[in-house]
Design brief:
The protein is mostly helical. It has one domain: Orthogonal Bundle (Rna Polymerase Sigma Factor, Chain: A), CATH 1.10.1740. Helices cover 74% and strands 0% of the residues. It has 5 helices and no strands. α1 crosses α2. The longest helix is centred in the middle third of the chain and has 26 residues. The protein is globular and about 45 Å long.
């Protein structure tokens, strides 16, 4: 599926994710999650894909934040906190590679 998002809009979406997450790897995770959900929602009519993906990225960020805070409350030692984080897992992507894949 080809996405009708310009490179400038793509960069803006990445910067938005970076502003939320604070770390490039975390921003790429948010961006990847938003794009993945956009591609999965092909049956829906999405009028503004950029706004749709920004909302999804924001919601993903809040979900991760809640999981992280819940993990800290549940952990009794630092090793348990790391174990909880490892169970949650992350999906990373290379932003330029993903961009070129989607626009090929």
């Amino acid at each position: 599926m080809k996405m009708d998002i310009s490179r400038e809009q793509w960069d803006r979406l990445y910067r938005y994710c970076l502003a939320l997450a604070g770390q490039p790897a975390d921003a790429e995770d948010l961006l990847h999650g938003a794009v993945e959900r956009y591609l999965a929602a092909t049956t829906e009519v999405v009028q503004n894909p950029l706004a749709w993906m920004r909302r999804v990225a924001r919601n993903l960020y809040y979900d991760q934040l809640r999981r992280s805070q819940r993990g800290k409350r549940l952990a009794k030692s630092p090793s348990q906190a790391v174990s909880h984080g490892a169970r949650v897992g992350c999906i990373t992507c290379c932003t330029p590679a993903l961009y070129h894949t989607l626009h090929a």
